[in-house]
Amino acid sequence: MSTDVETPRARAQEPLPSPSDWTFELIEQYHGEIARVARGYKLDTYPNQLEIITAEQMMDAYASVGMPVIYRHWSYGKQFIATEKNYRRGHMGLAYEIVINSDPCIAYLMEENTMAMQALVIAHAAYGHNSFFKGNYLFKMWTDASSIIDYLVYARAYIAECEEKHGLAAVEDLLDSCHALMNHGVDRYRRPQKLSLAQEQTRREEREHYLQQQVNDLWRTLPRRAGSDAAEEVSRRFPAEPQENLLYFIEKNAPLLEPWQREVVRIVRKVAQYFYPQRQTQVMNEGWATFWHYTLLNTLYDEGLLADGFMIEWLQSHTNVVFQPPIGHRAYSGINPYALGFAMYTDLRRICEKPTDEDRRWFPDLAGSPWQSSLDYAMRNFKDESFIGQFLSPKLMRDFRFFAVADMEDEPELEVSAIHDDSGYRQLRESLSRQYDLNHREPNIQVWSVNLRGDRALTLRHTQHNDRPLNKEANEVLKHVARLWGFDVHLESVDSRGHVTRYKAASPG
Amino acid sequence: MSVLQQIIDRRLSGKNKSIGNRERFLRRYREQIGEAVKRAVSGRGIRDLEQGEDVILPRHDVSEPVFGHGDGGNREYVHPGNREYVKGDRIERPQSGGGGGGGSQAADSGEGEDDFVFRLTKEEFMRVFFEDLALPHLIRTQLAEVPEWKTHRAGFVTDGMPSNLHVVRSMRGALSRRIALGGEPRRELRELEEHLLKLRRNPRALEDELIIREIKETELKIEELKKNAKRIPFLDPIDLRYRNRVRVPVPSAKAVMFCLMDVSGSMDEARKDMSKRFFMLLYLFLTRHYDKIELVFIRHHTQATEVTEDEFFHTTETGGTVVSSALKLMHEIVRARYPSNEWNIYGAQASDGDNWHQDSGQCRKILDEQLLPLVRYYAYVQVADAEQNLWEEYAQLAEAHQNFAMRKVSDAADIYPVFRELFKKEGAPT
Question: Side by side, which strands form the sheet with B90-92?
Fold first, then answer.
């Protein structure tokens, strides 16, 4: 190993004090040690900003999708009420931490935590998540940590201003509609421009003006000179190619939106884009943070810095977090991303350090390589889908006792399509990988066409994935689309045989 | 390079950040919440008005729709914890729609199909209640706070006005401080004095150089200690104790409120509900002014009886109406149980105005001569529009008596003006 961390330094004379109550001095002291060890492991992070908050503030943060600021909307109030109710009744504990992908990286420590838990949170959030935010390619590509807080401040102020100018109800309706399309308001392939508070403000008015002009041009109703290019006009298709980002399309092309409405659509779209990587890296992100709090704290223990009682305390909570209930268990609700992620990184390290023959066959490049750089590579260059597709080992499939169940529409019964044996590994891995593919989880809906010369109706097209139809809410969502578009909206849901199911929402006006 | 930029203690800042969001949520569902409050008001006792209330919204109403996959189609899910299955096994399709769903889907939606229940706080509940009654804002604030204050003693503090200085306490404190500070030097002094005495008694005290020197030294030390003891001040600013007086909101005295209601057949549920709000509002007003409030419920048709609150609102009788029977009963009860020099008496009467016509004149007479001189305030609402003879008779009273108010009420918002005089008189700052 190239680093010197592997050879533990001289054992500390005595462990750090570990009273159950934390103090600011202790937090600083623990943070210092954790930071030192993390540096030894070459974790590259944003600077940390630790914030101590109360349980109530934690609920506030919960309610506003984990962000320190966000514009006002009733749905966050609803979220807060639900969280508070569950918490007060003891149905649910609050998370120990929330960490924000920003620069500096803000990690919330809850006042109620004991010192051991604070140390766990620091290792988990301030070094685990933080390094993931900084290193993973999706985050690098889609988010700009240095400006997100600024942007949210701007968004909040702008929406408050709109509420004053145009009334609470109008803004609320608009936000409702935008939120309904939030998951379909992200660019999946194109890199968005960086956000910046100053630029946003200076460029906004310019953009509003320009956009309105663009839109007007598209919908120009002045009579054209006869015979000039009428034929071409009829066959002209708009948009020229299907578009996946519904909110973007609406922002740029919806005929009746006011400039401020376009700006609100844009804000929701930007926020959605910011969360887009998080939705795709749940297993990787949580697994990475869990792996590192486990590794960092254990290293400190090996150095003699942590007391036994301290270890027992955080290990207990660690164990709860990475518990994977088997199917049929009361607590089973799908695969626990913490459990899977933690197991995968731990397994990767094992493959690097003590590969078996099987590992050599499956991972010839990894087996025997330095584990730190291999893990670093794995963290940086994948998302859940590809990470599982690439690194899920047969041993892990056996450990988890994974099995795949196929649910075919035409079959009366479910069928076990693969289990954790030689013939099933590859299929199992593929299947699990697909399960984390966003395109698999969310319906693929794109802007198909706009009837430019007729009733201006917008047509969306849903390409069914494995013939899976849309859920019942589709009609409701379509009404929201119609509200934004201002004219009729059609939705065609096409299955593999080319059969089309049609939905329609009339314009509200 | 990973550095700790800072640790920030946010605990004191920005609590209740979500309050704006909560307001928006309440605004969005104000209709349902209004309904819930209405239901609660009719279900509650007059005394229990000021509480929060659980509001139930159907989950469907609060859901935020998004595009998602529905049932059907071909799916494959991976689950952990295989015990007995091998490839090709067939499993019966689970009944609940998800069909072996689990996986990411179940984890995403998480919550069940229950209704969305949340609790309105007391303040929010009262706000909605007041909204219905169309109370002016000034009155709302008056109702929301307690107008009268009483100061009473609450121990001692180290800081205060000279006039509040408590001499005995301060001196006691000074004494104990002097004892505490002076104890050690005094003991030393005593020891030194004894030592000196011993030295002086020594037969060789005058010859031995050593002893003479020691005597000198001891005397010096004694001198020093005495000087130090004098430096302990007799009274120090930290000894001072002041009487602490706190202002506590104290409703002034006791009151009794008579609720009189016609329960003859013509009073239907809606009219009773209106009457109830009328009683509630008066009660609420009284709770702001009085420590102890008793409620007396008198219902009447041709005869009047004193009943419990539950019976008062929830039984219907039929037959004619003789209003004076209730007034007589009220007068009897006042005389027997509530001497007017001890009690503030308030009367609230609700009726649809229907009365046996020869009785109305008598009602006026009883009120005019017997009741109105005794009561602080008497309010009458007629929950029907028709002009009846009772109304005419009462109208004469209203001109003659300051403490009599009457009003026709066809909507909850009409109730407040009945009390306008009352609120003005009692609530306005002088």
Answer: B75-79, A403-407, A413-419, B90-92
Nearest in space to A182 (alpha carbons), one of A456, A447, A481, A449: A481
Domain ranges of chain A: 24-136+281-319, 324-439, 441-505
Distances from the Cα of B74 to the Cα of A407, A502, B69, B231, angstroms: 6, 20, 11, 96
What H or E segment, with its residue span, contains residue B119?
strand B116-120
**What pLDDT, in 10s, does the model give residues A366-413?**
888 999 999 999 999 999 999 999 999 999 999 999 999 998 888 888
Give the DSSP H/E element, type plus range, for residue A502.
Answer: strand A500-505
Looking at the complex, does the CB of residue A471 fall below 8 Å from at least one CB of chain B?
yes
Separation of alpha carbons A369 and A352, rounded Å: 5
Euclidean distance between CA atoms A477 and A93, whole angstroms = 33
- Provide φ and ψ at A461, rounded to 5°: -130, 130
Structure tokens at B364: 């006026």
Q: How far apart are CA B136 and CA B129, in angstroms?
A: 13
With an 8 Å Cβ cutoff, is A53 touching chain B? Answer: yes
User: Which comes out higher in pLDDT, residue B103 or B28?
Assistant: B28
Nearest alpha carbon to residue B225 among B196, B175, B194, B190: B190
Residue B59 has pLDDT above 50, yes or no: yes
**pLDDT (tens digit, 9 = 90+) per residue, A220-260?**
655 555 444 544 555 567 888 888 899 999 998 888 889 99
Chain B residues with CB under 8 Å of A460 CB are none
**Given B105, B108, B118, which is nearest A81 (Cβ)?**
B118
By C-alpha distance, which of B12, B255, B35, B244 is closest to B132?
Answer: B35
Q: Decide which of B202 and A364 is more confident.
A: A364
Q: What is the pTM of this model?
A: 0.71
Query: What are the φ/ψ torsions at residue B275 (nearest 5 degrees)?
Result: -60, -40
Q: How far apart (Å, rounded) are the C-alpha atoms in residues A262 and A251?
A: 5
Q: Can you tell me the distance from the alpha carbon of B48 to that of B254, in angstroms, rounded to the nearest whole number?
A: 18
* Chain B residue with the nearest C-alpha to that of A340: B80
